[in-house]
Amino acid sequence: MADDALTWAVLAAAAFGAGVLNAMAGGGTFLTFPALVWAGVPPIAANATSALAVCPGYFGSVAGFRRELAALPRALLGREMAISAVGGVVGALLLLVTPPQVFAGVVPWLLLLVTVLFAAGPRLARWSAGEGGSRLAAWRAPGLLLATAYGGYFNGGVGILLLALYLLVGETRLTTANALKNLNSSVLSVLSVAAFALGGAIVWGPALLMAVFATVGGVAGARLARRLPTAWVRAIVIATGLVMSVLFFVRA
């Protein structure tokens, strides 16, 4: 990794921007992961480092939805946290044994997948509000396992994926879906980051710097989210995801 003022400034700016995006709508990894790769960090290490950088923001999100979580059955929360824990660890271990060249080839497709899911979010929500949610209710647990395994493998857009899952399986209240998304994201993130740390995949200097700036960005993003129209926020995330997908397809 390059060690100069410009590199550290870019990493700090990307982390701050990621914190803002995550607070408003999600997709912050669209900034942190490419910034780390640009700085010279290998893709697998960049993914692990990025996961640690955005991890602190999840705890604030969970605290913000404590009322919604308290209203849910403890058995449901315990079961879904256990599933998320397993998924996060499985995904992280899979990443650690993936050959670097394979992961580099998969990244553009993962970025594009999450961007498309985010863009389709409103349509998925409308569809699930009808008969779609009841038909897919049985897929809640296996879908959560797959989504959290994806999150452990590649943290980019896991919040978007989890929110889409909950809407698809019939969770009709957006605030409750958001609360569950944040809770399970925090569980899988902590365990996957622990696996990355034990596996020696994290570059600690950039990770700690970016975690600080991502947290500050999260505070700023929460305030900005109240002022910007939702359509603008969604457009920013979708545009960022498409640009990053194209750049990684060109790079691959």
Automatic annotation (TrEMBL):
Residues annotated as signal peptide: none
Residue intervals passing through the bilayer: 44-65, 77-96, 102-122, 143-169, 189-219, 231-250
Entry-linked InterPro entries: TM_pro_TauE-like, TSUP
Keyword entries, A-Z: Cell membrane, Membrane, Transmembrane, Transmembrane helix, Transport
Highest taxon of the lineage: Bacteria
Membrane topology: Multi-pass membrane protein
Subcellular location: Cell membrane
PANTHER family given in the database record: MEMBRANE TRANSPORTER PROTEIN YFCA-RELATED (PTHR30269:SF0), TRANSMEMBRANE PROTEIN YFCA (PTHR30269)
Family to which the UniProt record says this protein belongs: Belongs to the 4-toluene sulfonate uptake permease (TSUP) (TC 2.A.102) family.
Name of the protein described by the UniProt record: Probable membrane transporter protein
Gene source species: Ottowia pentelensis
